[in-house]
Design brief:
alpha/beta, 8 strands
């Protein structure tokens, strides 16, 4: 029987395997039945970390998915099918879960017998959720860690995951850690970001960039060329001189009112003049919806924290964070012995490549010139990045095989679900993301 190339698809926050049904369908169409191939594709859509379980954190999600991968590999071997190649694609939170899971697999020597091939993410917050100079961002950064349990703390980088107090997002991007070292084993690394209209994961974090060139795309004269074959996928872009910048003609007030749509799902939107009637009800509908959503999220977060206490108490197998903690304790003991006996020169080696043997706290302080520059008020679309996030960007962009693709969905309220065609049955406009998925499938190395 031919060898198996195992592809793992991982959904995002609040998600479930059905979110990736269209991606699963397309990759099977493009790579599933390749004639005369000695490798056969097997797709595993991760199921163990779904719905309310996504509150439990990147690390617990990664542990679950890694175990699911090992179980799937064992099941295939029982059928006489050997997994020799491995790829993973993560959507949103799923991309971070994937980065953690491959570290767990690498620690267990999985890649000594299975070749890593493709690592892909779609609109994943690789540097966490950054702050922006807006009131909404300030409120989100305050409520997010409190309402989204462990995942929220890790999204906003307020957790102290490392035994020495560093956020997990920073640890994932550290070249001296096993997660980064597992990532660079993949010869094909390609990430997809929404250039505009992603209300969930901003461009800078999904594209691992410090600046957003598309923040004012209607005003800054940026010129965009699209792939002819892949709808909405940017082939190249460049900024025009300000003198050649063109702006759209402003609409009349009646046309603006006529075309306005309330911030509601498409099924609840209506044409003029019914849209005005819907707007009159918003003072009642909007607070009611917000209250119900907060109650539901708070309840799920409370359940998650209880579940995490139970998981920590019942865990019999050492997780990476525990192994790293033990190694750091050993390092501290060696440091004490060395202080007591300066003549001794022991050499400490870690059984895990990239374990936390030197957990430096933070990058160097900025210079006076940089401090003055940072005090100037940034535009509202540019992020307020922390030193840790800037270091993540620098480290990840050093990966030579990293390729970045950008999707441009104009005229949609939130492009985050569109890029993956998350729910095309309920929302037909989600099918606009099919061009992105076909680009991903065509560039997938079997």
């Amino acid at each position: 029987m031919p060898d198996v190339h195992l592809l793992v698809l991982i959904h995002g926050m609040w998600g479930n395997p059905s979110n990736l049904a269209h991606a699963n369908k397309i990759i099977r169409e493009v790579k599933g039945e390749v004639e005369d191939s000695e490798i056969k594709l097997e797709v595993l859509v991760a199921e163990t970390n779904k719905d309310e379980s996504t509150y439990d954190g990147i690390d617990w999600g990664g542990e679950r998915v890694a175990e699911e991968i090992r179980q799937k590999t064992a099941d295939l071997e029982k059928e006489g099918r050997k997994v020799t190649r491995f790829s993973v694609t993560g959507y949103s939170l799923g991309g971070l879960v994937a980065r953690y899971a491959i570290g767990v697999l690498h620690q267990s020597k999985f890649f000594e017998t299975v070749k890593p091939v493709n690592f892909n993410t779609l609109t994943t917050p690789h540097i966490g959720i950054p702050r922006f100079p807006s009131t909404f961002s300030l409120i989100s950064s305050f409520l997010g860690p409190r309402l989204l349990s462990r995942s929220g703390e890790q999204f906003f980088c307020v957790d102290k995951w490392s035994p020495r107090g560093r956020p997990l997002i920073e640890v994932l991007a550290d070249p001296d850690r096993i997660f980064y070292q597992a990532l660079i084993l993949f010869p094909n690394i390609r990430i997809y970001a929404n250039a505009i209209n992603d209300l969930t994961v901003p461009y800078v974090t999904s594209s691992i960039s410090a600046e957003d060139p598309f923040g004012e795309y209607e005003k800054n004269g940026i010129q965009i060329d699209f792939h002819e074959k892949y709808k909405h996928v940017i082939k190249s872009y460049s900024a025009l001189p300000l003198s050649s910048t063109t702006t759209k003609e402003p609409k009349g007030w009646f046309e603006t009112i006529r075309n306005i749509r309330p911030p509601l799902p498409p099924r609840f939107q209506a044409e003029f003049p019914l849209n005005l009637a819907v707007y009159t009800l918003l003072p009642i509908l909007f607070p009611t919806f917000i209250c119900l959503a907060l109650i539901r999220i708070s309840f799920q977060s409370h359940q998650s924290r209880g579940r995490l206490r139970h998981l920590e108490a019942q865990s019999t197998r050492d997780r990476l964070v525990h192994i790293i903690g033990k190694l750091e304790s050993e390092l501290e003991s060696v440091a004490v012995d060395l202080y007591d006996d300066p003549a001794g020169t022991p050499v400490v080696t870690s059984p895990i490549p990239g374990a936390d043997l030197a957990d430096e706290s933070s990058p160097a302080e900025p210079t006076k010139g940089q401090g003055k520059k940072s005090r100037s008020k940034p535009p509202p679309y540019q992020p307020l990045l922390t030193p840790g996030q800037l270091q993540c960007i620098e480290n990840l962009n050093k990966i030579p095989q990293l390729k970045k693709e950008r999707a441009f969905f104009e005229g949609v309220r939130n492009s985050h679900p569109v890029i993956i065609c998350r729910d095309s049955k309920m929302f037909k406009h989600h099918l606009e993301g099919e061009g992105v998925l076909r680009h991903w499938a065509d560039h997938f190395e079997l």
